């Protein structure tokens, strides 16, 4: 049998908004400004938290293939969540760093807008795919970025309201607020554990959680002091800031939004779906019938990618 050609993936580390950023690009387009025949659209994933692009590798590759390899599919990580290459600093030594609270929620939103303005020409339409807190970020981005041409926004397992009051939020809020500094200390002391012990512990966890090798490798990369501190700090702000749903912004952009809620999602319980559906009866608001977890990348990347491809195919065909 003839094997399928390998899907091209390009990984890069760069500074965006003055902060270290990991980007994974699927497809042959590494620089849209220099392409002789630039694609008509870019599909850009805004991840959850922790926001490491490596978690979305399988999703990117499958989505790229489902769209007949016609459009680039990229993921831009949350600033400061990645393991840095040798010699790279977490913060760039420029005046940009005077901007306040870059690793917080508002800073991460500005970081994504800065990435788009720096890397996406105005004639390339955007399909934004937000996962978890990435969904909240996209709604905020659509409000702030009048200069960015957004074709469609797909919000997967969207944490856009009452995060601290959700079942998972009630567990995580004390950890991310009262026990934040002990978590920092634990992550610091973990630096001194021998690699073989850390790998053994993570391998054991991967068996229990059914993690594949790529997810495990990404998690190992994440477990360094700076990345953990930045992710916990962002999580702390999420619990405090993501409270009331922004109905005004949702109503304004409703025709471009698709919400996809999980039926077993403890961050966005079914109640949130039902209330969203009630408040926006004309919206494209869907409930998962396949039992995907909130972290759909664990075991459901390809199925999720196939669904996303179906949702955007008509929009892309009209370009």
UniProtKB/TrEMBL annotation:
GO MF, any single term: sterol ester esterase activity
Catalytic activity: a cholesterol ester + H2O = cholesterol + a fatty acid + H(+)
Keywords, alphabetical: Endoplasmic reticulum, Hydrolase, Lipid droplet
Pfam family, one: LIDHydrolase
Enzyme Commission number(s) of this protein: 3.1.1.13
UniProt cross-references to Gene3D superfamilies, sorted A to Z: alpha/beta hydrolase
Cellular compartments annotated: Endoplasmic reticulum; Lipid droplet
GO cellular component term of the entry, any: endoplasmic reticulum
Chief place where the protein resides: endoplasmic reticulum
Domain of life: Eukaryota
Keyword check for Endoplasmic reticulum: yes
GO biological process: cholesterol homeostasis; intracellular triglyceride homeostasis; lipid droplet fusion; lipid storage
Family that this chain belongs to: Belongs to the AB hydrolase superfamily. LDAH family.
Protein name, per record: Lipid droplet-associated hydrolase
Organism: Podarcis lilfordi
């Amino acid at each position: 049998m003839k094997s399928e050609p390998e899907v091209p993936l390009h990984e890069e580390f760069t500074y965006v908004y003055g902060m270290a950023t990991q980007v994974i690009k699927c497809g042959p387009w590494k620089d849209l400004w220099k392409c002789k025949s630039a694609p008509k659209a870019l599909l850009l994933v805004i991840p959850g938290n922790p926001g490491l692009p490596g978690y979305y590798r399988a999703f990117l590759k499958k989505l790229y293939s489902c769209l007949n390899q016609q459009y680039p599919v990229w993921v831009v990580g949350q600033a400061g969540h990645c393991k840095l290459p040798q010699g790279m600093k977490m913060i760039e030594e420029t005046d940009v760093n005077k901007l306040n609270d870059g690793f917080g929620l508002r800073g991460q939103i500005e970081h994504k807008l800065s990435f788009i303005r720096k890397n996406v020409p105005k004639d390339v339409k955007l399909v934004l795919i937000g996962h978890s807190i990435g969904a909240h970020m996209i709604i905020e981005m659509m409000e702030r970025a009048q200069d960015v041409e957004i074709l469609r926004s797909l919000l997967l397992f969207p944490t856009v309201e009452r995060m601290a009051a959700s079942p998972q939020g009630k567990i995580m809020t004390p950890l991310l607020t009262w026990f934040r500094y002990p978590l920092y200390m634990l992550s610091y002391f973990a630096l001194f554990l021998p690699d073989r012990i850390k790998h053994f512990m993570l391998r054991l966890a991967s068996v229990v959680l059914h993690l594949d090798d790529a997810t495990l490798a990404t998690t190992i990369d994440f477990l360094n002091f700076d990345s953990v501190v930045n992710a916990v700090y962002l999580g702390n702000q999420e619990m405090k800031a993501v409270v009331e749903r922004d109905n005004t912004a949702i109503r304004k952009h409703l025709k471009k939004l698709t919400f996809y809620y999980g039926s077993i999602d403890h961050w966005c319980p079914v109640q949130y779906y039902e209330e969203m559906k009630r408040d926006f009866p004309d919206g494209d608001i869907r409930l998962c019938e396949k039992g995907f977890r909130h972290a759909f990348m664990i075991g459901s990347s390809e199925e999720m990618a196939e669904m996303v491809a179906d949702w955007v195919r008509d929009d892309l065909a009209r370009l």
